[in-house]
Amino acid sequence: MSDSIGFYGEAGQAAAQGAHPQDTYNRHAEWGPTYFDAAHMFTSHGAYDLPVGRGMALGSAWHPVLNGIAGNWRLSGMLTLRTGFPLTITALDRSGTVSGAPRADRLADGAGSRQVGPGSSWFDKSAFRQPVAGTFGTAGVGVTRGPGLRNLDVSLQKSFPLTESKRFEFRAEFFNLSNTPAFNAPDRAVNSATFGEINAAQGERNIQLALKFYF
Question: Given the DSSP bridges, would you call strands 144-145 and 182-183 parallel, antiparallel or unpaired?
Fold first, then answer.
């Protein structure tokens, strides 16, 4: 929780609430979750030597050439699960004070159907409106949440010994193996034609192969 965004920048799923207070004389109204706050996060990592190859449960009597190709592989991975970052709903300044970070009026909770794409809405747009002239918006900081993150990275690796001190290591790495999209934050401007819509994503699956020489 904070009454200042700090200077951390923003991009993708994170959406800052504004660099200035809505009302300079009411700093308390800026108190809320920081834009990079994640209410729940789970990260797990593991590595497993596949039981395949000479001296293993499968392929213990393999020819050295076959074992050199198919034996003694290691599988590792990292799973990341995270809930969405806070969203602050913005508006045009109707206060007459030249507000540096005007916010919308909040009429209801704002939780919506969590839909993605053109013409749909991530949150309940009817819960927010443009403030009337001469007033500040009643919506607080970070009153609703954006999309979360689900990501699984997997790696396959194998060493090829040459001498006691030298070896090659081959790695096949799959980032976001399931190709699950990480949706960006929705449009938060109540006066925008695309208010509430999510029209961008990131984190497409990437595959890379690497060969490293240790000496």
Answer: unpaired
d(CA 102, CA 169): 55
Distance CA(18)–CA(110), nearest Å, equals: 20
CA distance 58 to 163: 25
| CB-CB contact of 10 with 146 (8 Å) | no
Predicted TM-score (pTM) of this structure: 0.86
The pLDDT confidence band at residue 190, using thresholds 50, 70 and 90, is very high
Q: What tokens were used for 115?
A: 């839909």
> pLDDT digits over 112-161, tens only?
999 999 999 999 999 999 999 999 999 999 999 999 999 999 999 998 88
DSSP 134-158: T------TT-EE---EEEEEEEEEE
C-beta separation of 179 from 136 below 8 A: no
**Using CA atoms, how far apart are residues 72 and 53, in angstroms rounded to an integer?**
5
Q: What's the CA gap between 15 and 187, in Å, rounded? A: 10
- Contact by Cβ (8 Å): 88, 188: yes
Beta bridge partners of 214: 167
